Amino acid sequence: MDFPKPVSEASISTSTATQLSAIESAKRAAAQLAVKEHFNPEARYVGIGSGTTIVYVVEAIQALKDPRVQNILFVPTGYQSRQVILKAGLKDLKFDSLPADTIIEVAFDGADEIDEDLNCIKGGGACLYQEKLVATQASKFICVADHRKLQPRLLTNWPTIPIEVEPLAVTTVISALKRLGSSAPFVREGHILKAGPIKTDQDNFIVDAPFPPLLLHTDIEQAAKQRSNELQGQGENGQWEVQALAKEIKAIEGVLSVGLFVGENGPQAKARGKIAGGQKPIAAYFGMEDGSVAVRVTQDDGTVVLRK
Fold first, then answer.
1. Residue 223 has what pLDDT?
2. Which of 167, 168, 170, 176 is nearest to 252 (CA)?
3. Is the CB of residue 162 less than 8 Å from the CB of residue 128?
4. Which letter, b or e, does each residue of 135-149 get, where b requires 16 or more Cβ atoms within 10 Å of its Cβ?
């Protein structure tokens, strides 16, 4: 009888490296198309988010070799993104140095997961508060990610909602999250043994809260058409509509920011007469396994379609 040959550690390492290389290539392709379609070299202010994907956005901006880029002030969402900006030889401007009522022309950022209505989970890198500040101050917010982040509902693949919490309030916030239906919320620890909880740039903690996959408003509407009173999206049987849960978590005393980017996008907020305030991206670019880029984009009527 022939037994399969054992797979060597070298083979496993090579396979893993190949997979990682494909993912990085996917991120680069998505970033290049996002910059091509949404970056204006005559902009005054451009937001630059956090995470690995954003490196390729800055790379794509550099590749334009347009001298007007040197006149742009790039607004980072934290220490890491500021280092990316400076390393590229670009000019940075801290968010609190923006002139009053100034709108950022476009903000580019990654996401941990994006649903079919362009709601996002962000905060895997612990920068969600500043990411939300920049996104809500932008005329348009563009997400760049790889195919793993493209999901029908939030919390399909990504396991938790990141929440920035004032350290003194951690115990009461965790208790409140359990009452909302989170099975086992926990304080995120550092990667180094005995390093303690991760601290954000605001010196706060991150609480990661698992919930069942989050519903869209269309799920509630569909249930109503079928005359199902069991699905309200208000936490019954652990089921939450995404905006409803974001609102409930934000109302907990001690919570600074919730890693759910939901509700309106920038143009929708502007249409209602608001200077700023849209959290959702107008489009999300996904680098796919086959080398193509899929785009979820909001149309003029507010519906979201997937463009391949």
1. 86
2. 176
3. yes
4. bbbbbbbbbbbbbeb
- Using an 8 Å Cβ cutoff, are 215 and 237 in contact? no
Between the CA of residue 165 and those of 186, 196, 221, 235, what are the distances in Å?
11, 15, 33, 22
What is the distance between the alpha carbons of residues 233 and 120, in angstroms, rounded to a whole number? 18
Q: How far apart are CA 161 and CA 181, in angstroms?
A: 12
Q: Which one of 9, 42, 116, 131 is the catalytic residue?
A: 131
pTM for the whole structure: 0.91
Mark whether 131 is an active-site residue: yes
| 169 close to 253: Cβ distance less than 8 angstroms | yes
Strands 91-92 and 73-76: what pairing? parallel
Q: Which band of pLDDT confidence, cut at 50, 70 and 90, is reported for residue 16?
A: low
SS (HEC) of the chain: CCCCCCCCHHHHHHHHHHHHHHHHHHHHHHHHHHHHHHCCCCCCEEEECCCCHHHHHHHHHHHCCCHHHHHCEEEECCHHHHHHHHHCCCEECCHHHCCCCCCECEEEECCCEECCCCCEECCCCCCHHHHHHHHHCECCEEEEEEHHHECCCCCCCCCCEEEEECHHHHHHHHHHHHHHCCCCCEECECCCCCCCECCCCCCCEEEEECCCCCECHHHHHHHHHCCCCCCCCECHHHCEEHHHHHHHHHCCCCEEEECEECCCEHHHHHHCCCCCCCCECCEEEEECCCCCEEEEEECCCCCEEEEC
Tokens coding 90: 């670009």
pLDDT in tens, 222-234: 888 887 677 889 9
Place of tokens 């091509």: 36
Q: What residues form DSSP beta bridges with 295? A: 285, 307
Q: What is the dihedral of CA 25, 30, 31, 37, to 10 degrees?
A: 150
pLDDT digits (tens, 9 = 90+) for 291-308: 999 999 999 898 999 998
